[in-house]
Amino acid sequence: NAGVTQTPKFRILKIGQSMTLQCTQDMNHNYMYWYRQDPGMGLKLIYYSVGAGITDKGEVPNGYNVSRSTTEDFPLRLELAAPSQTSVYFCASTSGQLVYQPQHFGDGTRLSIL
Amino acid sequence: GQQLNQSPQSMFIQEGEDVSMNCTSSSIFNTWLWYKQDPGEGPVLLIALYKAGELTSNGRLTAQFGITRKDSFLNISASIPSDVGIYFCAGNTGANSKLTFGKGITLSVRP
Questions:
Q1: pLDDT exceeds cutoff 80 at B95
Q2: What angle (nearest 5°) sits at the alpha carbon of residue A58, between those of residues B105 and A36?
Q3: Which of A3, A31, A1, A27 is nearest to A108 (CA)?
Q4: Which of A19, A87, B74, B87 could hold A36 in an S-S bridge, CB 3.0 to 4.6 Å?
Q5: CA B34, A93, A37: angle at the middle one, nearest 5?
Q6: Burial letters B63-86, b for 16+ CB under 10 A, else e
Q7: Which conformational region is residue A27 in: left (phi greater than 0), alpha (psi within -120 to 50 degrees), or beta?
Q8: What are the tens digits of pLDDT across the range A53-109?
Q9: Whether pLDDT at A9 is above 80
């Protein structure tokens, strides 16, 4: 069982570069989420999706974009990387059933912007 | 926005000791969860609580969903070195299964 898979695991970017963080899940989950984690700050929700073709902003969406063309994939795009986006990024998914099902997390992408 | 309060930021205990962590909020949550994060990995679910007053155990871990629905606690008994990590509480209000996370408590266990 792969669960939630994130690639790459590490990346260094220069200011102004762009990149896409990949997230795929093999659990047929409808709901997917992107978080960023900064030291001592917990996890902050960037964007989320409740199904293919549907995305919505979370708490800290500025500087990011997402798309959800399939149930399995939920990529996160940084268009103009800034030092403030240095962080660890986590993707998560859940089935979205009426009875709440806990989110499953990937192992993260560690991104440094210099 | 909603906030979950976890403190202190760090805890240091001796192997074999019990430790309790709590999480409080000014808002009501429908579900409370406790996650653990090991270095270099994503959070892993420890315990999920679905009803006010619910007390649930998972091995040496016990967690409770507060009666007011505004707090939860996690207890770890007879700590061992592999309990080291960051412990997060999280709450769900039901809206799109979104979670609000606390800032986490870093637990260190001295052998």
A1: no
A2: 45
A3: A3
A4: A87
A5: 60
A6: bbbbeebbbbbbebeebeeebebb
A7: alpha
A8: 999 999 999 999 999 999 999 999 999 999 999 999 999 999 877 677 889 999 999
A9: yes
Determine, for residues A108 and B31 on separate chains, whether the beta-carbon distance falls below 8 Å: no
Q: What are phi and psi of A83, to 5 degrees?
A: -55, -30
Q: Which of A6, A30, A32, A43 to mutate to test the interface with B (most CBs of B within 10 A)?
A: A43
What are phi and psi for residue B95, nearest 5 degrees? Answer: -80, 105
Q: Determine, for residues B42 and A4 on separate chains, whether the beta-carbon distance falls below 8 Å.
A: yes
Question: What does the buried/exposed string (b/e) look like for B24-54 if buried means 16 or more CB atoms within 10 Å of the residue's CB?
Answer: bbeeebbbbbbbbbeeeebbeebbbbeebee
